[in-house]
Amino acid sequence: MRIITHTCPQCGTIVSANELESSRVMKCPGLSCESVLRFDDLSDEEQEFFVNHREQYRL
Amino acid sequence: MKGVLLSGGTGSRLRPITHTGPKQLVPVANKPVLEYAIEDLKEAGVTEIGVVLGHKGREEIQELLGDGSKYGVDITYIVQGNPLGLAHAAGCARDFVGDDDFVMYLGDNILKQGISELVESFQQGDYGAGIALQEVDNPTQFGIANVDDDGNVTELIEKPDDPPTNLALIGIYVFSNAVFDVIERLEPSWRGELEITDAIQTLLEDGNAINSHVVRGWWKDTGKPEDILEANRLVLEDKDLAREGRIDPGATVQGRVELHETATIEAGATVRGPVSIAENSVIESGTYVGPYTSIGPNSTLEGVHLENSVVIGDSTISTTGKIVDSLLGRGANVGRADELLPEGRRLVVGENSQLKL
């Protein structure tokens, strides 16, 4: 199963695509990091793959 | 070599303790379980650690571990979100691990001997993975490995009816970078998770050698209350315990007792080790604290008989009853009902609590 993640450019915290997709826009969960992370931060190809296989990433 | 420390999961078997915090922060001998894993990784020379977080207790775990500097390690956080399996958690760590090998350590596991031998054993050969094994009495309840004379794994079987060995997989693995491509090829199991045993089995089928290391000494998965008590007993049995706090004349203290410099055992109290008493806690007159007990910070014991138990902290316990084999959550208070009428016990009990009265 393809696992897609995004790394916060400010603090290096790594967030899985399923977490980004569920929030769409989220404050970076890294310690004291003020960055805002978005599902849109993933490449178009990654977003499309995730959306097309969304069920895999749900329990 | 990097470390990936798994700190997700719901902790459902530890409710109600885990209603208010992650299972990895439940203390054993007054230290969160997760800190034992950090120390094991550091001792094995692994100082770059990715901590994988689920939905529960993210902030508490980050608050405790910080950037890792207080442990002499460098921590990166990895948010897995949905608990989609151990192999998914490992896959989330791919960018963190880069081209390295890595140790994967389940954050609610605790073991006596550390992981240095496992890591060294893996590094001595050209292995796809290394797995820690332990002999168990009930192999039908575990994932079991079959190994050849050289210790190479030949087969993995989940909860076999007819186990070929009694060597169970415990929650500590070493992986080469090859595992990431294997994880990409895995499909979720019947329970919707990417299984780490499937990843190891696929590594094996791809022709990779899988090293095994049989762990000597005890190992505990601290997933249930009785496991916490057992781990507490095992750690107190082994740990160097220092008496730094105040012991008043007239107090009886026997055996090995760890007493924080701000903790007090008052005259008329009896403490029989091994026992750990954390900061700002007071053992008052008439109290008996028996072996294999840990009293967390800011707690007061007034006349209770308490043994083989863990008090997480911020508690006042003044019952005249005997409390044994118990796990008390943070801020739990147990008073006395001796003079109250009508006679009987008064309980305010949260969801999923377990009492034997």
TrEMBL record, chain A:
Protein name as it appears in the record: Uncharacterized protein
Organism name: Halogeometricum pallidum JCM 14848
Lineage: Archaea, Methanobacteriati, Methanobacteriota, Stenosarchaea group, Halobacteria
TrEMBL record, chain B:
Keyword tags: Transferase
Pfam families to which the protein is assigned, alphabetical: GMPPB_C (PF25087), NTP_transferase (PF00483)
Family matches, as InterPro entries: G1P_thy_trans_l, GMPPB_C, NTP_transferase_dom, Nucleotide-diphossugar_trans
Record domain Mannose-1-phosphate guanyltransferase C-terminal: where: 272-339
GO MF: transferase activity
CDD domains found in the cross-reference section: G1P_TT_long
Top-level lineage group: Archaea
Gene3D superfamilies to which the protein is assigned, alphabetical: Hexapeptide repeat proteins, Spore Coat Polysaccharide Biosynthesis Protein SpsA, Chain A
Domain Nucleotidyl transferase: 2-236
Protein name: Glucose-1-phosphate thymidyltransferase
